[in-house]
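Section 5.1 Outputs to date
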Amino acid sequence: MSEQNILNPAGSVLNPDFPLAVPPLTIPISEFTPRKGGPYTRIQGEGQRVIPMTWKRRSRSTADQLRQWFEQYRQGYFSFFHSELNRYYSGRFVEMQGPTQEGYEQWTTSASFVELPGLAMYANPTNFARDGVMIDSHDDMTALTVNRAQIFRTGNFLSVVGDIGANNYAGHTFYSDVTNDYVEWQYFGYGFALWSKKDVNAGHVEVSLDGVVVQAALDCYSAVTVPSANVYQKTDVLLGTHRVKLRVTGTKNASAANYYVYADAIQVIR
């Protein structure tokens, strides 16, 4: 009962029918109105992804193996390998229908596989280009209602104006050179990539994940301005609710002209 037990290894009769669509993660949010003030919206609980699977016109032996798999992992979990996406998911079946006979020695079974947070992975997802969701720093409501993430800013990062320019992701970023000012994203997903521009004014930024420093002094200095791009990524992250924090360290490259940290965007794998 672990990520080492894989449904859909190469050539297995237990492979579900392909093509197999994978729906997006559903992440609930709630909105309520306090006694004083306007509506307040927040992430409410953790999300999940349910993948419907079908095995059409298989042998009775295959149908029995699927039923055995369902019963064996009813309280545990296993890995499902999506061969078209080259990606693993950890979870279990939450329901199974069948087998239903559709012809001589032909049986059809269907099941719902639910991806569960916090489970060990056979291999973590790493394809940012296909599975990544961009969450910039300046549109709080879009981040919450569309991308299901929350952003917290302190100090100079609270600037209403920020920095507007083509070198920033989506044309806008917030910045600060005040030691210990920070920006924090809360998101539900797997690993993340930090996006920032690099320039002569950039200093060192401390990057933390869930309260643990993963980069003590990420150097974003460049003698020439480099438009916003992936400057750091961490993919060995289990599915769940996470917090990525950027803190101004007040240190810099000897060639840098200032200590600025640009809180531009993060890209989250889901």
